[in-house]
UniProtKB/TrEMBL annotation, chains A, B:
NCBIfam families: PRK11202.1. It holds the Pfam family TetR_C_46. It comes from Shewanella saliphila. It comes from the Bacteria. GO terms for molecular function: DNA binding. This is DNA-binding transcriptional regulator FabR. Residues 33-52 bind DNA. Residues 10-70 form the HTH tetR-type domain. The lineage of its organism: Bacteria, Pseudomonadati, Pseudomonadota, Gammaproteobacteria, Alteromonadales. Keywords: DNA-binding, Transcription, Transcription regulation. Transmembrane segments: none annotated.
Amino acid sequence: MGVRAQQKEKTRRALVDAAFNQLSAERSFSSLSLREVAREAGIAPTSFYRHFKDMNELGLTMVDEGGLTLRQMMRKGRQRAEAGGSVIRISVDTFIEVLESNPNVFRILLHERSGTSAAFRAAVEREIEHFISELAHYTEAQANRTPDLARAQAEALVILVFNAGASALDLKRSERKALADQLVLQLRMVATGAEALQQKMDNRT
Amino acid sequence: MGVRAQQKEKTRRALVDAAFNQLSAERSFSSLSLREVAREAGIAPTSFYRHFKDMNELGLTMVDEGGLTLRQMMRKGRQRAEAGGSVIRISVDTFIEVLESNPNVFRILLHERSGTSAAFRAAVEREIEHFISELAHYTEAQANRTPDLARAQAEALVILVFNAGASALDLKRSERKALADQLVLQLRMVATGAEALQQKMDNRT
DNA sequence: TAAATTAGCGTACAAATGTACGCTCAACTT
DNA sequence: AAGTTGAGCGTACATTTGTACGCTAATTTA
């Protein structure tokens, strides 16, 4: 890659990073202005357009990138689970860690999921869908579930985890422990219930 | 109430209604400006201050009012359930109806739950908490649950319902049917699972 | 009836925003 | 070596925003 393209990429990164850094509990993506982001990235407002058509395009990039980051981290965590122990417990702990080290990545997904732009909502759903289908396949194979039961179960699990994540963002570290415990309990409910429903269906034939 | 106070109340309502009416899939509360709301309500921008300190105060009013509306409608629906039939099924159907007739009320709760203002988030949580504790008490009495198991179960149920609501907002009427069915399945999972866990605990003593 | 209160208005202003336009100059192509 | 490209900049402008201030006129209070 030429010097020129390299520099361009660097600036582009600066923009994305600047936007991520400006996110916080008090600042959502949609409240960021193009000028603010450019300022933080150290370029002139008008130079922004050399990289993105508008703020929307930046945001979608962030959603995609953020989703990827999250999935990679979760996958890494799942490897730990293969060494033995409760899958649920380990997944929850991993998730909390991911959350703590990337709060802003999680924030944008969470907020834009119920956001004002259809494109954003779709992008977030797509990311969540990745989680769900990965998990559904896992359960289908592991626990011999009917596809649609596996699907419903996986979806319920993911939703519960995401929502707990949302609450966790506002909590102190000590309170998070209790939250994680309750989440584990809820996930077990779903898993146990799914198993019971599956049994009932199997016996009926 | 004097003529004067009556007129004031009327204008205040006009403001709240104007704000609710401007909400849509493409327009969140935080994207509304004070001037827009005033314009829609048919008063001068500066007159806004005769009723609310700022947009934030308006928003909090809307959250409180919206939560109240939702709870009243759900309560009315629960009466239908007492006539017999699956509590879960009837509650879900009621919820979908409520959603369809008050999409904007639901939207503001949903969006501000992950919003940018701590006050808003707290207000929404408070509303959701109402739902949860009502349901937890119901379950505790009805199904002899341990308090904390009842609590975890109720929370899981409410979260699943709310999330399905969020998805439903983006769906056509025909697709909502399938969504409702899956939701019912998920709720049954939680209920069944909670029951099984309860049994296990009981047997252990 | 006289005085006090106040909802609503119009004017005004500073601040911030998105973006059009044209320039520069370093990097790349031929 | 000569010519082309394009990232980044500065200037400029029309819009929109929140809100300060002071007035009016109708209602309420005394």
